[in-house]
Each structure stands twice: as C-alpha cells, then as structure tokens.
Design goal:
The complex is a heterodimer of chains A (about 90) and B (about 350). Chain A is α+β, with helices and mostly antiparallel strands. Chain A contains two helices and five strands, in the order ββααβββ. Chain A has one domain: Beta-grasp domain (Ubiquitin-like (UB roll), Roll). Chain A has a five-stranded mixed beta sheet, covered by helices on one side. The termini of chain A are far apart. The relative contact order of chain A is 0.26. The model of chain A has no long low-confidence stretch (mean pLDDT about 95). Classes of the chains: A alpha+beta (about 90), B mainly beta (about 350).
Chain lengths: ~90, ~350
C-alpha cells in the first residue's frame, strides 16, 4: 500500500482525508484508483489525455515523477505519495 | 440572451458576483464560487439555471451549474475526444440551445471546438465538422494562444440554423444543425495578415458578434479591423466604423427590439489597448451604424484606462438597462439606454464576463 496525501487546495472540491492508502503498480493506476473513490478527481490532476496538468506535481518517496505524459513511474509498497500544486499566480 | 433587467451575473477572477435591483437600488452580493476564476457565467431562462465556466489554472477548466433554487454543482466537463490530440484549454462562452430544445447547451472553447449537450450537461459531444475545419485551415489564436469560439448565436426561427464566431477564423454558419459549416465573412477585412492571405474566406478576427434578438437577419460585429453589421443573415457585412471612436473594441451589444440600435465601448487602437485619453465612454448608434453618439454621463472622464472584455457588456430585456464591467473590476449600469451611468462597484476583481440573468 502507498500512503497518499493531497494539497489542501484539492479539498475545496473533494472531501479528501489527510491521508489515504492505496495499492497501485504505477502513478497512472494510482490516479485511476483515486478517481474511483472520488469521481472526477483524475480530471483535476490530469487532462483528458491522461497527462499530468502543467502546474500539478506528484512526488513518490521524495522525488517528482519523471513521466508526466503517461504516469508510468512506479509506486513501491509503503511509498509516500504527495499530490501537490505549483505556487503560481496571484 | 438576457431574460431580465434586474439581475446580473458578473464573472470575476475571484468568484461569481450577483447584482440585483430591488426597490430601485442595485445590491451586489458576496461572491458565489469564491476565489475561483469565472471565465463566463450566464442564465438559462428555459429552466432557471445559472451556469459558470471556471478556469482553475492548476486543476483545469470546469463547468458548474446552479439549478433554480439550488447551489452550484460541478457538471461533466466537455472533453476533446481521443484522436483529436488536444485538450480543452478554456470554456470561453456558454449558450443555451433553442427554446424548443430543452437540455441542449453549447460551449465554445479554446482550441476552437464547439461542444454541445442534449441531456442537460450529462454528456458532451465535440462538433466534428467544425473541428475538422479548425484543423484543416489551421485557425490561429486571437485573444488567446489558440483559436477559440467566443460567440454562439442560434436563430430563434430555426434551431438548426446557427452562427459561431472564432478568433481567428471569422464567422461560420450552419443551416443543418452543425452537420456542415460555411464561412460567412464577405465584406470583412484582415489588415494584419500577409497580402496574399487577405483574399481567403477565413482568418478574420471577430472580437464579438451579436444577433439582433428581434430580427436574426441583423448581426453586429466588433472586429479587430473595425465595426460591422449584416442585415442579410451574414451573407454580406457592411463596415460601420467611424474613426477614431468607432473602430477598435471588444464587446458589441444589440438592442432587444430595435434592430438599428447598438452600443460599443471604444478602445484607442490595436496598438494601444486602453481608453481614449483616460476617458471611459460608450458609443451608441440609432440608425444601423450610419451615425454614432457618445455617452459618457456618469462614467469617469479622466484617469480611467480600464476597459470591458468581449463578454462584459450586456443589455436587459427592457432595452434600457445596460451594464458593463472592466479589467480593473469597475462595473457600471445605465437605466436609460446609456444616457447616464451609475457605479455598480469600483472594487471587484478583474471582470471576465457580465450578463443579465
């Protein structure tokens, strides 16, 4: 199981817990599983082509994922996943 | 199209503000969808719902709807289909379908797609024939990075007869419910294009196009290269510019019953997109664009450099109540056809859209 945490900004749109545990082989599968729990959440994190949105970042065990197109980065059991947003705008 | 003269939806960079008139006075209410950038907001008179297009930035573009008496709830967002190799960047305009087609709604997007729903927003479909034109003719951006549809007009006499205006392509018309489209830009100019391109039937930059509600043969257009009017259902366009004040601007507003009357808010020029000398004023024609009269009473006449975007000027059903909102969050209302104006607010965030509800 991976431990997932979310930026508080996403809680404005979804009733998200402080942390969530999910088992997924890679980040794409993880996002899919999150979307099954909170329908519509995937479209906030990724666009309709499944690509990570430009100003969103996903971290796995302290490193930003490398594949922002297909989200193929692995999610090892026990890893810490953070879904964050860039700080931008005014 | 407005359905009242006493309620206004103002889409701002930080939420949706509702202005209501009661007992002769206007009141602005606290923002709905607070903090969220509202690209466009409008009212659907057919079922009493309000719709908002939200540009979250980080989280993408979304649609939200408030059914009559309810709260705003997110609805399914129009998505570009697989194979189109693109994504929705902006829901620029929302337009209810024909009165005889409840549950139908249209969304114009960047990058140049027209989406429609026939089941009240549960599912959306990209209009493929129009999108094919966008791809084939490589529509350029204008106002936004990619091409975008910002004006959608439906003929009240025939639900299958529609116009859209695209920056940059021009006006497109369908007479068969979107199965086929043709360009409708005869008489228009595109001074910014290379000389060898200027004879093309597309590539124009309409800033906004409005259909006269009482006669769908009459269309008004604020264009990058002047102001135009068609009185034959867009078969031909006549230039009705009158420099310096009637040439460059974004919104154009048509009177609900008088097909000769319309308003614009002038900007200095393409190169200097501010007001003339810091003066904010409106120009009105009462004779189909042959002559124009300045209307400035109550508007700031010095130090005002802000201006309304293309969706931020509207008229109520009474034909007398007008309102516009600016890039600096100033909003003004007139209750006498523009002869005099009063401040609705000087303290709103940037205004993207202003529509009577």
């Amino acid at each position: 199981m991976a431990h997932v945490s979310f930026t508080p900004h996403l809680r404005r749109f979804f009733d998200l817990p402080d942390a969530f545990e999910v088992e997924a082989e890679d980040v794409a599968a993880l996002v899919q599983k999150l979307d099954e729990t909170w329908p519509g959440l995937a479209f906030y994190i990724t666009d309709e082509r499944g690509r990570l949105r430009q100003h969103v970042s996903i971290w796995v065990d302290g490193a930003q994922i490398e594949d922002r197109e297909a989200l193929t980065d692995g999610v090892p059991p026990g890893s810490a996943v953070h879904i964050l947003q860039a700080l931008s705008g005014g | 199209m407005a359905t009242t003269s006493d309620r206004i939806l103002i889409g701002t960079r930080k939420g949706l503000v509702e202005a209501r008139k009661a007992n002769g006075a206007w009141t602005l209410h606290e923002p709905l969808l607070p903090g969220q950038p509202i690209a466009y907001a409008m009212h659907d008179a057919r079922d009493g719902s309000d719709w908002a297009s939200i540009d979250h930035g980080h989280w993408g573009v979304k649609l939200s709807r408030r059914k009559k008496g309810g709260d705003f709830e997110e609805v399914e967002a129009p998505k570009y289909p697989e194979g189109s190799d693109t994504t929705a960047k902006y829901y620029w305009v929302l337009t209810p379908g024909h009165a005889d087609r409840p549950g139908t709604m249209f969304v114009g997007t960047e990058p140049g797609g027209l989406f429609s729903t026939t089941d009240d927003g549960a599912t959306w479909e990209l209009n493929k024939p129009l999108w094919d034109l966008c791809v084939e003719h490589k529509w350029m951006g204008g106002g936004r990075d990619g091409a975008g549809i910002h004006s959608i007009m439906i003929d009240p006499r025939d639900p299958d007869h529609m116009y859209v205006a695209i920056s940059c392509a021009g006006v497109c018309e369908t007479k068969d419910g979107g199965a086929t489209w043709s360009y409708a830009n005869k008489g228009m100019r595109m001074d910014y294009a290379p000389p060898e391109e200027q004879d093309k039937e597309y590539g124009f930059d309409p800033h906004f196009v409005a259909m006269a509600p009482s006669d769908p043969e009459v269309l008004w257009q604020a264009n990058h290269c002047g102001v135009y009017r068609s009185k034959d259902g867009s078969q031909t366009w006549d230039e009705i510019s009158n420099k310096p004040h009637v040439y460059f601007g974004f919104p154009i507003t048509a009177h609900p019953t008088n097909t000769e009357r319309a308003w614009i808010v002038p900007m200095h020029s393409d190169n200097n997109r501010t007001t003339f000398d810091g003066r904010l004023f409106v120009m009105r024609t009462d004779d189909g664009g042959a002559t124009w009269n300045e209307q400035a009473n109550g508007l700031p006449q010095s130090g005002a450099w802000d201006f309304p975007y293309r969706h931020s000027f509207d008229i109520g059903t009474d034909g007398e109540t007008l309102a516009f909102g600016t890039t600096s969050g100033n909003a003004y209302v007139s209750e006498d056809g523009g002869d005099s104006w009063q401040v609705l607010s000087n303290n709103l965030p940037l205004i993207y859209s202003l529509r009577f509800a």
